[in-house]
């Protein structure tokens, strides 16, 4: 009989949050009498009712036990099988023929032999997935002559890398190959365990099982709770509560190698280096989100003013008060409803350029002699191009000779001119950023003044009335002088007095007009930065 594994954890599991029915049954099978406990525990954390079925000697006894797995299931209930090695080969052949109407998914890890890759068709009710490892695998083929089925032969075939980078094989049923792995790569207690291949195969397996059992999980909500605690609530305890406790969680900010592994290190990182270091000016805008079986991938536009020490993105760098805009990609893995890992990437060269720590003109002399006049790096233009999409016009500016070439000029001369133009643009961007800061400071100052008490407002009104009276007296004197000068026919003096009159208008009105213009422009530029 299958060995049923229980847990001290919540037996309802992660999936039961949305599905109050009994957890789906998932049977694991392999040659040995026992199996990798950590793997079984991880699948139990995903909400499955896990049991282990040893293959033992195989044969009729094993076949009979496989046939009995669906017994006791109610109407509409199904089960899945995850098999390894020899047991995987046995199951692939056993369930090739119709009859197991309760089986909804069959996952085969590194089987020693697989069914014919050309024309094998599994029953439509079963979702099949095969993970191959090693250099060769046996292929079972049954010869037919005049419609009569002959003996089965097993032919050894070399495993090719598949197409693309994912190792997808173009055969009759879904199959992946893992070049850097040997059979046993997905079992933690074996020397052949290989983490990268194991986690990739896990994601693919989880996707097939959830589809087969028709179970959906809201990964987005889990991730958003983590983001809320990190950036908005700014709660270390809340952030740590979203992390898994079954494995060591890890967070890696790749460009600066900051982050942590394990709850203790991540607590220290959050408390000391991350949460308190983010300035009030930090803004994030979600550009895209991709959700997989166990991962959420975010593409974000992030902008901030480097007004305080930010160890996670600019470690060891004092505040430069420079504006920064950069595109960030975050890849989050979620296990059992908790965050297991987060990998974050961005263009660090762009960040260093924007804060003034990297000069694109500093080309090594050897490369300059070869005609290189500028380092192939860009600043905020990269983030703005992604943000603006099809409205952006910054493509291929670093490629020598791209676009219309200036007649009669060498590429080097043209590159120097392009560099000068880019430098002028960068200087203009800095001026615009400074102008935005000044306008923002002015707006803040005006907003502060507008919220003063009524007594203070009264004093301001009295001062304004006094200024208006003085302006009126000045205007009367100017009118008298103007009349005398006109009678003398002095037109040039009249022109000067007209200008003088314009300058004598009440200053409060001019400030209001300038405030309206400046505020409108500030909103546009601020929106562009965000």
TrEMBL record:
<dbReference type="InterPro" id="IPR009959">
    <property type="entry name" value="Cyclase_SnoaL-like"/>
</dbReference>
<protein>
    <recommendedName>
        <fullName>Dienelactone hydrolase</fullName>
    </recommendedName>
</protein>
<feature type="compositionally biased region" description="Acidic residues">
    <location>
        <begin position="452"/>
        <end position="487"/>
    </location>
</feature>
<feature type="compositionally biased region" description="Acidic residues">
    <location>
        <begin position="413"/>
        <end position="444"/>
    </location>
</feature>
<feature type="region of interest" description="Disordered">
    <location>
        <begin position="395"/>
        <end position="530"/>
    </location>
</feature>
<feature type="compositionally biased region" description="Basic and acidic residues">
    <location>
        <begin position="510"/>
        <end position="530"/>
    </location>
</feature>
<feature type="compositionally biased region" description="Basic and acidic residues">
    <location>
        <begin position="488"/>
        <end position="500"/>
    </location>
</feature>
<dbReference type="GO" id="GO:0030638">
    <property type="term" value="P:polyketide metabolic process"/>
</dbReference>
<dbReference type="InterPro" id="IPR032710">
    <property type="entry name" value="NTF2-like_dom_sf"/>
</dbReference>
């Amino acid at each position: 009989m299958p060995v049923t594994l229980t847990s001290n954890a919540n037996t309802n599991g992660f999936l039961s949050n949305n599905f109050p029915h009994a957890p789906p049954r998932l049977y694991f099978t392999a040659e040995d009498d026992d199996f990798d406990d950590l793997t079984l525990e991880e699948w139990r954390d995903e909400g499955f009712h896990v049991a282990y079925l040893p293959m033992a000697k195989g044969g009729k006894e094993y076949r009979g036990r496989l046939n009995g797995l669906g017994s006791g299931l109610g109407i509409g209930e199904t089960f899945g099988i995850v098999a390894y090695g020899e047991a995987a080969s046995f199951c692939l052949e056993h369930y090739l023929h119709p009859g197991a109407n309760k089986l909804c998914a069959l996952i085969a890890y590194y089987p020693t032999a697989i069914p014919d890759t050309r024309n094998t068709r599994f029953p439509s009710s079963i979702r099949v997935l095969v993970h191959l490892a090693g250099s060769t695998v046996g292929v079972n083929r049954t010869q037919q002559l005049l419609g009569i089925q002959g003996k089965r032969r097993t032919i050894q075939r070399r495993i090719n890398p598949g197409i693309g980078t994912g190792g997808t094989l173009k055969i009759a049923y879904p199959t992946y190959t893992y070049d850097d792995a040997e059979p046993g790569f997905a079992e933690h207690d074996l020397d052949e365990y290989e983490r990268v291949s194991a986690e990739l195969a896990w994601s693919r397996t989880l996707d097939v099982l959830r589809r087969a059992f028709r179970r959906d999980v809201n990964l987005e909500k889990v991730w958003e709770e983590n983001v809320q605690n990190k950036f908005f609530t700014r709660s270390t305890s809340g952030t740590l509560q979203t992390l898994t406790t079954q494995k060591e969680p890890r967070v890696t900010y790749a460009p600066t190698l900051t982050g942590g592994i394990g709850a203790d290190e991540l607590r220290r990182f959050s408390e000391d280096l991350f949460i308190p270091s983010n300035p009030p000016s930090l803004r994030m805008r979600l550009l895209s989100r991709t959700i997989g079986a166990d991962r959420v991938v975010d593409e974000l536009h992030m902008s901030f003013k480097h007004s305080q020490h930010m160890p996670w993105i600019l470690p060891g760098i004092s505040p430069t008060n420079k504006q920064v805009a950069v595109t960030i990609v975050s890849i989050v893995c979620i296990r059992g409803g908790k965050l297991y890992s987060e990998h974050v990437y961005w263009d660090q060269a762009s960040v260093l350029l924007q804060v003034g720590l990297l000069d694109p003109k500093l080309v090594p002399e050897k490369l300059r002699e070869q005609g290189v006049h500028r380092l192939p790096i860009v600043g905020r233009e990269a983030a703005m191009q992604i943000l603006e999409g099809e409205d952006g016009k910054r493509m291929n500016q670093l490629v020598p000779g791209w676009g219309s070439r200036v007649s009669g000029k060498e590429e080097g001369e043209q590159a120097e001119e392009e560099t000068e133009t880019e430098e002028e643009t960068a200087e203009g961007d800095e001026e615009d950023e400074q102008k935005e800061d000044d306008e923002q400071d002015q707006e803040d100052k005006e907003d502060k003044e507008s919220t003063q008490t009524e007594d203070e407002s009264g004093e301001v009104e009295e001062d304004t009335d006094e200024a208006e009276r003085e302006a009126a007296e000045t205007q009367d004197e100017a009118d008298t002088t103007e009349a005398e000068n006109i009678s003398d026919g002095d037109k040039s003096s009249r022109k000067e007095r007209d200008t003088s009159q314009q300058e004598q208008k009440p200053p409060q009105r001019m400030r209001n007009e300038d405030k309206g213009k400046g505020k409108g422009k500030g909103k546009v530029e601020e929106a562009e930065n965000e």
